[in-house]
Amino acid sequence: MRFRAKILDVGCLNSFTRVVNTISKLTKTCTLRLTADNLYFMLSDKVANGGVSMWCELDQGNFFDEFQMEGVASDANEIYLELVPENLSRALRTAQNAKSLKAKLTKKHCPCLTLAAELPSLSSVSRVVTHDIPVDVIPRKLWHDFREPTVPDFDVSIYLPPLKTMKNVIDRMKNLSNFLVLEANRSGQMNLKIETDLVSVSTHFRDLGNPPCDGGSQGASQDLETMAQARVDIKKLQQFLSSQQVNPSKAMCNIVDKKMVHFVWLHENASLQYFIPAMA
Prior knowledge:
Strand order of the largest sheet: 10-6-2-3-4-18-17-16-11
Order of helices and strands: EHEEEEEHEEEEEHEEEEHEEE
Strand content: 35-45%
Largest sheet: 9 strands, antiparallel
Structural class: alpha+beta
Number of helices: 4
Distance between the termini: 45 Å
CATH topology of the largest domain: Proliferating Cell Nuclear Antigen
């Protein structure tokens, strides 16, 4: 099992850093899956038990100038690592404006993902800063626990309003209740609502647009004005919106009525899915 990779382009390094920074704000630990073509950051808390789930996919060719790996076996050319994304984020912060960044799997006092950043220097001697990030290698027999989450047929899919606007609204609402009702319909309308014994507050967005149906979701029989809704933990939603450092080209929300909210961020170099279960 071997892995080594190299980034030479500062723009690619900054983009990768923003993705990792986003992941670090969403979870304390996650699984990094390495394949020949892609990297995946995964969090697979049991949604059925109230936990969130995350799936972030990156095409390695959009970030790395060199990328070599050998999986755990000839018939399983993949590597699964558990790590603390904040450790990776801190290491990448020291590599901003680096001339190059090398990453490889090493064996120190424990398995490590070692990053070596070559920093600019006024002298002819280069400065290299090295970080050893402890990781746990996940055995092959457990890989089935880390597959892409299944997206159930949703009732409504809608494009989100400007994320900063949505975040500002929810930042104000979080002081009123622990829960928020997010509802939307197939006419481009979305409402954010707080309802308690003392107060009722709602914010309305219109003309957001709906992604085209794929035939398997958003059944054609559903009325365009019918609202699908989910009551979610407002802190989990706020955490997700506050984490974003990658400016997505598209941001969508899929609602499974009274069961789940599924957010999708699409970027030219990466995609991020985030699942928040509905509360009773």
